[in-house]
């Protein structure tokens, strides 16, 4: 096959391919082995789906509804290009008895539009706005897999991991912020077997590129801004985006300094920074001043001031985004923005306290909310795979055999006793 991301080669009999894929799917779900004619991209997705403990007989859950959905959609960057999506794809979807769908970067469907009868049919499997169709929740599917691998993908019939979805075929392409490159979500076309044609994949890819071009025109470039953007969650070295659009990867100590200074716009004295950064009281102010001098050279002139040490420009960070959302009770939005612990390898006392406070606050909110999809996302993430309390909450919300098995193993490993349901 010349393009492994296209579902069917020219001349392939769709009916025969469906039968072969169903046999392969049954073999995989029974024995965990992949056989022809499963494409490598689908085989990899099946393995990820199984690793996330997705059930082939599962179904989608609606995570956002009514006012929550409306508020989330209104603030989402892709709302600005929905008129473009409708203009380019609306008629094609309606006339072809297909659906136009748009999801966020976590596979949550935001809009599902198109042919009325097809929309009703899709609604029976909760392919509806507000439903989570991430690969970790719904297995292999075009919108979920497109955001998982960050590239256009086509999923044909029994290539879908969940059996209920196997009558459908879909093609999706990711959409990125044109300035930062950040993944915003994906645009998808869903319908019957006819969408397995290579043209449908090229079509959604072209629509995604058009949307990125439109976003570039609608949003002013970062060069017109005066602030910095800091990414510090789930990474040991912070990534700093300057107003000119330059990306700077910082060392660990510089990452810690920017985290602390961004949280104290009023500034910190040298003695305060020493206490925040170093457990060893023998570290001298000279060492700290040398670090700050190097940081000043890295970030450029006019950013770092002294007496006290402070940032002369505003800084927005992914840490602050999660804290704001969590503080306002927007648990789903906070969990979506949380990409991992704050500078996980940092041993700076103040950074460790912030990291622990954020993690504890978010996991407590997730446990209190009791949403099985949010709990599953946390439990299957590297930072949550041994989190006994979260696994207990997940077992209470979704007592699937795989969940109960993992919980029993954690109980035994951590000496917490057995868990009864």
Please describe what this structure looks like.
- Keywords: DNA-binding.
- Pfam families: GAF (PF01590).
- Residues 245-311 form the OmpR/PhoB-type domain.
- Helices cover 47% and strands 12% of the residues.
- By secondary structure, the chain is an alpha+beta fold.
- The protein folds into 3 domains: 14-218, GAF domain (Beta-Lactamase), CATH 3.30.450; 241-368, no CATH class; 370-421, no CATH class.
- Strands 2-1-5-4-3 form a 5-stranded antiparallel beta sheet, sandwiched between helices. A 4-stranded mixed beta sheet has the order 8-7-6-11.
- A hairpin with a 5-residue loop joins strand 7 (239-241) and strand 8.
- Helix 4 (82-95) runs antiparallel to helix 8, helix 15 packs antiparallel against helix 16 (388-397) and helix 16 runs antiparallel to helix 17 (401-414).
- The longest helix has 21 residues, at 198-218.
Descriptors for this entry?
421 residues; alpha+beta; Beta-Lactamase; 17 helices; OmpR/PhoB-type_DNA-bd; GAF-like_dom_sf; GAF; DNA-binding
CATH superfamily of the largest domain: GAF domain
Approximate helicity band: 40-55%
The structure class reads alpha+beta
CATH class of the largest domain: Alpha Beta
Task: Give the percentage of residues in beta strands.
Answer: 5-15%
Largest β sheet strand count, sense and barrel closure: 5 strands, antiparallel
* Gyration radius over CA: 24 Å
Low-confidence stretches: 416-421
Total helix count? 17
Molecular shape: globular
**CATH fold type of the largest domain:** Beta-Lactamase
Strand arrangement within the widest β-sheet reads 2-1-5-4-3
Organism: Streptomyces xanthii
Domain OmpR/PhoB-type: 245-311
Protein name: GAF domain-containing protein
InterPro entries: GAF (IPR003018), GAF-like_dom_sf (IPR029016), OmpR/PhoB-type_DNA-bd (IPR001867)
